[in-house]
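Narrative summary of target 7.
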Amino acid sequence: MGLMVDPSSNLFNGNAHAYATLSTMETLTWEHCSVVPYLRRPTDPRDNRVVPLFPLWSVDDQSWHFWLPAPPPHGLFPMQPRDVDGIFIAKAPQRDSDLYIPFLDFMWKHSSWPKITRWLKAIENDIFKLAASLAKIDLFFECTDSKSIDHAIFVSTEIEYLLGRCRSLFDNLQMALNTFWNDHLELVDPEAQRLKKQQAPADSFSDVAKKIRARKPGEPSPYAFPEEILRCYAAADDFFVTMKDVRDKVVHRAAGVGSVYVLPQGFGIGTDNPITKLGPERKPDHWFNENVVALLPVLANVVCRTIYVCNAFGDAFRRIFKFPEPIISDHHVFLRTAHGPSVVEAQAVLKGKAPWRGDGAAVPVAEVEQS
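Modeled conformation, tokenized:
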């Protein structure tokens, strides 16, 4: 059968994905898969999407369930792990820090073709690492009493990594969109379909956005994209261009991150620091003094807005294109990581929570989407 499992990974550490290809099930059948409550059998026998076998959190018995392919003729072997880390299925988050990314939820339900799942997993990995990056900066602050650590250099190094990881997520998003656009979509308009085949989108989000940005009034749509897709690129353009420019200056043009201030309330940066261009609108409680502002709102804005762009594209694709029926029914896809609370905290800051330490507990925000 077409089962693909990463044998080098712990099944519950967020890195392994087990799934079977519908069209190549030689030992597994849909009768075997009927024991998995969230799976829905496609009505089209030609459907060649992969069947995701992810851990399930059952609200009915308040426990975890997982199914592994067993040697023939046994089908799937049920397991009950004590806990999981990574991607999982549930009707609702099991913890306040479980992350719901609408883009990933929609794509796993409707677009789990083998070539696309590669890029979905890459996006998940980017989000896990962004969460870890935010958590590391929290950890650095907890260690500020240590005299053997240069905390400012630690934070500066992490900011450089975080900007690069966000840039990577944009390109992985572009590859997921390209794979769907090139391999799984046929436009109704014959002329549009002809143009679509002649000009495949570039692999880089930057290159695609640049071509769309250069379009003059009256010119045909680049790549034959519908206007709603062009609007998604336009909406992301200012943020993406600013992030790319700041990252390039920091990493490639010797600008550096700039001074990071270790304050009793948290980390701060100067108002003339180039990365402040990536922050949200400053609020009164963002200021430490007239020259220094809190670092957290800037990083929160970078991470969350990058994820919001994914969600915006997923929502546009859902509205304007016809997708296969969902293969995951009556449940949703969630991400769990030990560092999820840092993403929740980041979004809470964007929603108004004060960004300094000692200002109250984080507001649980399980759904990472545009507010």
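The chain is about 40% helix and 15% strand.
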